[in-house]
Amino acid sequence: MDNIERYFKMYGEEIYIFLRKFLKNEEIAKDILQETFLKAMKVSLEEEKAKNYLFKIAKNLAIDYLRKEGRLVYEEELLEGNVEDPEYIIENRDIWRPLNEIEKEVLILYYYKGYSYEEISKKLRISLNTVKSHIYRAKKKIYNYLKGEKK
Question: Across the 151 residues of the chain, what is the mean pLDDT of every consecutive 10-residue run?
């Protein structure tokens, strides 16, 4: 129980931000965050694997929720070949190559960790407009890179 409380203090906010961004609903994100830690209480977590395990539980619970609500159509479209899997693109194409370090960090915070522009601004101690600029430029660089222009 002590470890779960410690993990909640360490990762709870980060998981909540991810869920809020993923689900686009604060109350459901809170419910799934709670359910994530309830499930984690039933297993013994290794220190070095706890964060990944908790995020995986949270993501799976969120996907289950979206399926039940009929809001998860993406996977079916993906299986039919109508959409290229973004995870495949990220893992198998070097989309990070055209980006500088700050652009990578801002994109990771925004898309993977679910931070808002304001939260990124505070965390990195840069202005809100700078955050927006970095995200815009990074997306444009990735788009051009994937189109083959590699600017």
Answer: 81 88 86 92 81 88 82 50 49 72 88 84 94 92 75 45
Single pTM value for the model: 0.52
Q: What is the CATH number of domain 2-74?
A: 1.10.1740
- CA-CA-CA-CA torsion sign (109, 110, 113, 117): positive
Determine whether domain 94-147 maps to CATH 1.10.10.10: yes
> What is the per-residue DSSP string for the chain?
-HHHHHHHHHHHHHHHHHHHHHHS-HHHHHHHHHHHHHHHTTSPPPGGGHHHHHHHHHHHHHHHHHHHHT---HHHHHHTTSS--HHHHHHHS-TTTT--HHHHHHHIIIIIS---HHHHHHHHT--HHHHHHHHHHHHHHHHHHHHT---
